[in-house]
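Risk register update: the risk of archive-format incompatibility is retired. Evidence:
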Amino acid sequence: MISHDGHVYGFDTRSSEPRWVFEAGEPMCSNPAYFDGRLYFGLWDGRFLSVDIDSRQIAWSFETNGKMYSSPSVNEEVIVFGNFDHHIYAIDRMTGRERWRFRTDNEIGLSSPAIYHGTTFIGSRDGCVYAIDIESGSVRWKFDSGSAVDSSPVIAEGLVHFGNESALFVLDHETGYEVTRYKAPAGSCVLDRGTAYVPSGDSVLSIS
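Archived output:
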């Protein structure tokens, strides 16, 4: 887990005692992603780091121009994350080299990307959710929800679920077509056996 004190901690799941610590030297709000012995996370000073778990050494560092609240998503080849500098980045997982970047019309705030069938999905404070080809960086579609999207898209059975300050939206992942919406302020949802659980104000909505 990350901390505002500039450290990343790893805890024993049984005793809750810290067993691993990395000093980043900079506050962070981006939750780390783990893949094949490395952690990946962003810092408030604009750096995005890959850290080797065993050696606690920085494998590579990538520079951006803004803070990161968006947590990364990672697969075998690429890492995707959003940034306050309005960009969505795709970085080579092993080398830290930029593969592509795409600029939205506002900050990428708390929305974290989802990767599904060769496409990454992420929301922006410009009100849109973007579906971007993970190889080329080309936009497959974008959907304008009408207000800032700080929730993280969740995909299940070919449907993209996300919320903004007025509604929960359900879109077709291939076309961006709006399948339905539920009028209620909605955050990032959790899906379980066909039911979406969505934070809304001081309540949690259950939608089937």
